[in-house]
Design goal:
Helix content: 40-55%
Distance between the termini: 77 Å
Order of helices and strands: EEEEEEEHEHHEEEEEH
Shape: elongated
Oligomer: single chain
Strand order of the largest sheet: 1-2-3-4-8-11-10-9-12-13
Largest sheet: 10 strands, mixed
Amino acid sequence: MSIISSIPVLKGHGGTDLTVSPEGLLLRSRHDELSIPGEAVARVRAEGGSVVVELRVPAGAAPAAHRIEGVDAFTATAFADGVNSLLIAPDEEIDGRTLVVLRTLKTRWEQSAMRRMKWAALGCLVVIVALSVIGGMAGGAVYPVAIVPIGVLTGACLVLGGQELVAWAHRRRVRRHGVKEFARPANVPGMYLYVDRAGTARTVSSFTSGPYVEIAYDPEDPADVFTVTPGLWQRLTIWLGWFLFLCGLGGVAALVAVVADAFGS
């Protein structure tokens, strides 16, 4: 399937879109990217405000399809007609389900970790404001001037360092208790493919050389995957996390000293 400029891009609900790529179709959402090779597509159907991509399946197998909702009806028809005109029947029976590759941009754990980091940053900001007001009322305007920069650096170190330590603990748990698999190289350098228990092909990044790489993923969220052997970058980030967290503890001690001095003045 080649790129045809006349085939429109479909924009659906929730930030989803469906486009034609050199290899086939690309269905994207805010957190996932589904690559559907051209040889895996049986046909594309426009159903009013939605488009259904039907996959090729062996005779007697259950139908398989992917859908995008909330698209313009006229654009959906033009997209379906354009893609269907490019489809070529393969020489042999193909199971399109095995050719589809899902790339997760942000896992559920990463989404929740980002929310925790935002709340932690907000909590640090509230503490800084409170300590500035207390220090100013107790010792004068000079104390807020000292508390604010120390507090900002301390909060940044605690939030970033603490986040990396929590992420390290999460990676360690997945490596110890997750599902072990071997991933094979993909067509993109540094990218490997593995198949989860549901039969979905997924991607994982690794710059180790070799015909395969051993990975472990969370059975509750197969997109949450790590190589079994930590890479150099992960080793460096954990040391950086410890350094930042210890600096944050030192900043807490400094803030306590400044506030105590304000009450003692």
